[in-house]
Design a protein that fits this description.
The protein is α/β, with parallel strands linked by helices. The protein folds into two domains: about 5-95, no CATH class; about 100-320, Vaccinia Virus protein VP39 (Rossmann fold). It has helices at about 5-20, 30-40, 55-85, 100-115, 135-145, 155-165, 170-175, 205-220, 285-290, and strands spanning about 125, 150-155, 175-180, 195-200, 225-230, 250-260, 265-270, 300-305, 315-320. It catalyses: 3 S-adenosyl-L-methionine = nicotianamine + 3 S-methyl-5'-thioadenosine + 3 H(+).
Length: about 325
């Protein structure tokens, strides 16, 4: 039961009850209607802090995120199957109902990445690419046209479907590779990537997410960039939240971006620490490089600015001190 009197929380709890009682989360009129209502409820900017909700609502939120993840996977599989029936699938991506959102999100991520990256990355990893790897496809087609993309997913069928979408394209079929493996089993290969993208639904609860981030901190190359997707306000009922002050051990957070339009995910960009020049002899340098110890840093004053005024969004630049 919902223990909050807030109208938004009450509405989310009502929708959760209806969604959790569905026989199937495969795309259908009822499924589409309920998830559309849920998204429309959570999109408007809200001051709500989900971490402060009571235990009953916390459990509902955790269950709801998993339901959203399952429904999203089924929706992507459904449309990947349809697209795979075309001779040239990439010419028909706009049949996916949220394709325009991916165009906007990928453009935002590219712009933010460009602010902190002095050159075009030669090799990128995308963790949790799924059966419809739209982020990789859009970035490779529109923004990073010379970059190679290694896509990681634990699901063999998802990778097979994704490969089928790009196999007929002479350019992307050479630059996009799909690996069926758990990212926790990928170690030395992670040092090959200048940028690693972590999908929002890879690690759907806090402990899973932190375990994966710590693994990336251990094996990514020093100075490499990590792009993560988070959620803010009521949107945190749809996706897991990454706390840039506490969750990114071994990384320097560069900026956090909270969209206020139909792009749901917040964007966090961070850089893996290189070994510090000076450190206490009591701190093992290997542990620091592995992300086992978070270098002393603090979330300082948040300075709001917005180079994307036309998108009506808000950027928070988080300044971090790297002093020991």
């Amino acid at each position: 039961m919902c223990c909050q009197g807030d109208a938004l929380v009450q509405r989310v709890c009502e929708l959760y009850e209806k969604i959790s009682s569905l026989e199937s989360l495969k795309p259908s009129q009822d499924v589409n209607m309920l998830f559309t209502q849920l998204v429309l409820t959570c999109i408007p900017p809200s001051p709500i802090d989900v971490s402060k909700l009571c235990q009953g609502v916390q459990e509902i939120r955790s269950n709801l995120i998993r339901l959203c993840g399952e429904a999203e996977g089924l929706l992507e599989s459904h449309f990947s199957t349809i697209l795979g029936s075309y001779e040239h699938p990439l010419d028909h991506l706009d049949i996916f109902p949220y394709y325009s959102n991916y165009l906007k999100l990928s453009k935002l991520e590219f712009n933010i990445l460009s602010q902190h990256f002095t050159r075009v990355p030669s090799k990128i990893a995308f963790v949790g690419s799924g059966p419809l790897p739209l982020t990789s496809i859009v970035l490779a087609s529109n923004h990073l046209t010379k970059t190679s993309f290694d896509n990681y997913d634990i699901d063999t069928l998802a990778n097979s479907m994704a490969l089928g979408l790009v196999s007929s394209d002479p350019d992307l079929s050479k630059r996009m590779v799909f690996h069926t493996t758990d990212i926790m089993d990928v170690t030395t290969a992670l040092k090959d990537y200048e940028v690693v993208f972590l999908a929002a639904l890879v690690g759907m609860d806090k402990m899973e997410k932190l375990k994966i981030i710590d693994h990336l901190a251990k094996y990514m190359a020093p100075g490499a960039t990590l792009m993560l997707r988070s959620a803010h306000g009521a949107r945190a009922f749809l996706y897991p939240v990454i706390d840039p002050c506490d969750d990114l051990r071994g990384f320097e957070v560069l900026s956090v971006f909270h969209p206020t339009d139909e792009v749901i995910n917040s964007i966090v960009i961070a850089r893996k620490y290189a070994l510090p020049v000076q450190h206490s002899s009591s701190i093992n340098s290997q542990e620091i490089n592995a992300g086992a110890i978070r270098l002393p840093s603090k979330c300082c004053e948040i300075e709001a600015f917005n180079p994307f005024q036309k998108l009506g969004s808000m950027i928070e630049e988080l300044a971090f001190e790297e002093q020991l």
